[in-house]
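Quick check before the chapter quiz. The format below is the same one you will see on the exam, so make sure you can read both the input and the output lines.
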Amino acid sequence: MQKLINGLLRFQNEGFSKYQDLFETLAGGQNPAALFITCSDSRVNPNLLTGSDPGDLFVLRTAGNIIPPYKNSLGGEAATIEYAVKVLQIPDIIICGHSQCGAMGGLLSPESVDDLHAVKAYLEHAQSCLANLDEKHSHLEDPGERLARTVEENVLVQLENIQTHPSVADAIGRGDLKLHGWVYQFETGEVSAYNADKNDFIPF
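Here is the expected output.
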């Protein structure tokens, strides 16, 4: 905790002045370029990853970057998405998975989350990616490779889930919104984006 307090004091005494003009401008309202949906994992920093400033990203973080289908959840995820699309009129949504994802590890090894009842229930919204994994990558035996492919399949499943949200479906139908699937390898800095034409994740 002391590390966080020290960082806060440094920001107030030294760092804030760098952004003061920007924050004064943002006091009049926000106009973010994208809704960035990613995992709650502490190793993922959306602003660091994208080189973005305060005001550039509207960020939603959930376990395993999971977005429950609209009919199953009218909680924080649905409210954040609806506000981003209908009020802020964000033109792009990025769903970004990452390497070594603990949530996807729990999906592959369900016994590891037997005592985590909320986590186990939440992972149900990613369950279909296991069937996709078996269909596309049944030959993989290496646990690390299976986890990496599960992370990718989960991004694709969540791209499907988010389209069940009426605000998203309507905006896509009007041509006002685009969806993007990314996977971030935090240990190397590499980011891959899903390419529908090649049906694969391609490094930037």
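If your answer matched, good. Helices lie at 2-26, 46-50, 76-87, 102-108, 117-122, 128-137, 143-162, 166-174.
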